[in-house]
Amino acid sequence: MTEVVDEFLHWLQSEQQKSTATLRAYGGDLRTFAVWLQGHGCTPEQTTRFLLRRYLVELEQQGLVATSVQRKLASLRGLFGWLQERGRMEKNPAKLLKGPKAPRRVPHFLTTAEVDLLLGQAFCESPQGQRDRAIVEVLYSTGCRVSECSGMKLAQLDLEEGIVRVLGKGQKERIAMLGGPARTAVLAWLEGRRQLLQQAKRTDPGSLWVNRFGRPLSSRWVFQTVVDCARRAGIQSSLTPHGLRHSFATHLLDRGADLRSVQELLGHARLVTTEIYTHVSIGRLREVYDHAHPHGRDHDTGTT
Known about the structure:
It contains 13 helices and three strands; from the N terminus they run H-H-H-H-H-H-H-E-E-E-H-H-H-H-H-H. The protein folds into two domains: 2-85, Orthogonal Bundle (DNA polymerase, domain 1); 112-288, Orthogonal Bundle (hpI Integrase, Chain A). The chain has a three-stranded antiparallel sheet with strand order 1-2-3. A hairpin with a 4-residue loop joins strand 1 (157-158) and strand 2. By secondary structure, the chain is mainly α.
């Protein structure tokens, strides 16, 4: 089973160009299953839908949350689908299996006032301060994922047009927009970046974000930058780069952007993934309606 998993992961990396994070997640899930399957005296080719259902039930009994079980099921679907395509199995036993339903969570986002606090704070005038401001501005302006931001190259930028070509999941490219404040912040950072590279005496790596040693920033560094900036701005709610992505989408919809456009800007493969933001916007519309419409809410009885 271990050899089969390694073959599959190699295919995901070389043929499907999956990210390191995806490969790590799939590898962990499938190796855990391999140990379980070996304990039941089966090979991958002997795996049945009944056996997989039993495995999923055991995962739930161990206390795994629905989202984790769903992810493991997705890994299994991928593996057995790959085996079927290669003629090593007649059917994909995981294809028709359904995992537990995960609760639909409304994403956390900042209010526009909190965004003003975050972006309006005083940053250090050093190159590192210019970089931190630019990172936060770019994340909010583009709505990109933290990995997409940390992996940005200078060649992806077109400051004259105010766009950046973002490489998303599966190496799919999309166009993201840079607003005026983001462009100004990036321009200032490019000068600071030049200074850092000169001081470090390093060859330009081509990455947009570099540290004081001239090396590209990791996703973890970008994540911590956002956390630190939110703390300094006095924002009480815990903010992450993904929170800025949620804020980007929510604020666009609140101001009349259509769902398809937001889907394109976020790089979502399916519209249903973007639709979660409509729950946020509809809730806010209800608040406005109840407050402003003469018959929106009976304030004496509390009924609508």
